[in-house]
UniProtKB/TrEMBL annotation:
Gene Ontology MF annotations: pyridoxal phosphate binding; transaminase activity
Keyword Cell cycle (UniProt): no
Coiled-coil features, chain-numbered ranges: none
Name of the protein: DegT/DnrJ/EryC1/StrS family aminotransferase
Length: 372
């Protein structure tokens, strides 16, 4: 059944940029420059400038971006990589594909971001990198994390935080970050795409070589590499959307504040709104049932919302250590209580820049009825 108010409406977003995208596609089809070329070069330059870094390297997807960023800082087989238990599984997959050991830590129960003290405590002599995940649109305090973990490399997973800035700093400034342009992201392509952003020319060259079969020039292979490149059609879409990103993120902040006001009296826990407004771009608006609610309560609430025509999501239904894919990490139920309790009770409400105030009012009314 199609939701009357969808969880995400990419069609409305496309309508706003349809003419520009169509013109760009016609240009690419006329020149048949499907890989690389002026549009890819232009997007990489524009996105690097937007992030305030020296280099942006377009890749095929966000998982490759995390893996390549980890490889760039020297992560190899047997090295430990510390990351939060509450993240999309791709963060862990990227480390696993290198042969590194995934070391999970719990989250802060208020922000749902990585617990910085836990990350510092997990560090050992074998720790090569820490991967803070900028989750739901909110940035981790990277300078504070670096103060705690010392000389260990920090690789930011910024797939959900395009446009966010904390005290003027965007992801990747002074280090290296990976992002995804999966269609539902704040800056999303019309298929899979990703990027690594960094101030390091050395890291940038290495990542570009990895994605181009180990070389920067055709048929010259300096290292063993992979095939992971941003195609020109996706670059056209991303360039068109990048021009609107700040405006769209401002609309997300408006909607988040309205949700906060309209839901204040309901028996649910609302997301923490940080003092630094720019540090959150509200990729998702995640609410949570109280810890004393029955475990089955969320399913009942979501079923009622679905019946009323309101789309919802769960981010994420299981922490990484409770997925069958990563059962061999050796963590048991109860290892990360904050992440586990959140996973049982969180759910996401519609949040996208083309959601109208009237539609949001309907979401609130439906949620009010569902909670009763």
């Amino acid at each position: 059944m199609t939701a009357r108010i969808p969880f995400l409406d990419l069609g409305a977003q496309h309508a706003e940029i349809a003419d520009e995208v169509a013109q760009g596609f016609e240009r690419i089809l006329a020149t048949t420059t499907f890989l690389g070329g002026p549009d890819v070069d232009a997007f990489e330059s524009e996105f690097a400038a937007y992030q305030g870094v020296g280099h942006a390297i377009g890749l095929a997807n966000g998982t490759d971006a995390v893996e390549f960023a980890l490889r760039a800082v020297g992560v190899g087989p047997g090295d430990e990589v510390v990351m939060p238990a509450n993240t999309f599984v791709a963060t862990a997959e990227a480390a696993w594909r290198i042969g590194a050991k995934v070391v999970l830590v719990d989250i802060d129960p208020e922000s749902y971001l990585m617990d910085l003290a836990a990350a510092a405590a997990a560090r050992t002599s074998r720790t090569r990198a820490v991967v803070p995940v900028h989750l739901f649109g909110r940035l981790v305090d990277i300078p504070a994390l670096r103060d705690r973990v010392g000389e260990v490399a920090v690789v930011e997973d910024a797939a959900q935080a395009q446009g966010a800035r904390l005290r003027g700093r965007a992801a990747g400034q002074g280090g290296i970050a990976a992002t995804s342009f999966y269609p539902g992201k704040n800056l999303g392509a019309y298929g899979d795409a990703g990027a690594v952003v960094t101030d390091s020319a050395e890291f940038g060259r290495y990542v570009r070589r990895l994605g181009g079969h180990g070389g920067l020039v055709k048929y010259e292979h300096d290292i063993v590499g992979f095939t992971s490149r941003l195609d020109a059609l996706q670059a056209v879409v991303l360039r068109a959307k990048l021009a609107h990103l700040d405006e769209w993120n401002a609309r997300r902040r408006h909607l988040a504040q309205r949700y906060d006001d309209l839901l204040a009296d309901l028996p649910i826990l609302l997301p923490e709104i940080p003092a630094e407004a720019e540090s959150h771009v509200w990729h998702l608006y995640v609410v949570r049932l109280p810890d004393d609610a029955p475990v089955t309560a969320r399913d009942e609430v979501l079923a009622r919302l679905t019946a009323s025509g309101v789309g919802t999501g769960i981010h994420y239904p299981k922490p990484v250590h409770l997925t069958p894919a990563f059962a061999d990490l050796g963590y048991s139920l109860g290892a990360f209580p904050h992440a586990e309790r959140a996973a049982e009770r969180m759910f996401s409400l519609p949040m996208y820049p083309h959601l109208s105030d009237a539609q949001q009012d309907e979401v609130v009314a439906a949620l009010t009825a569902a909670l009763q």
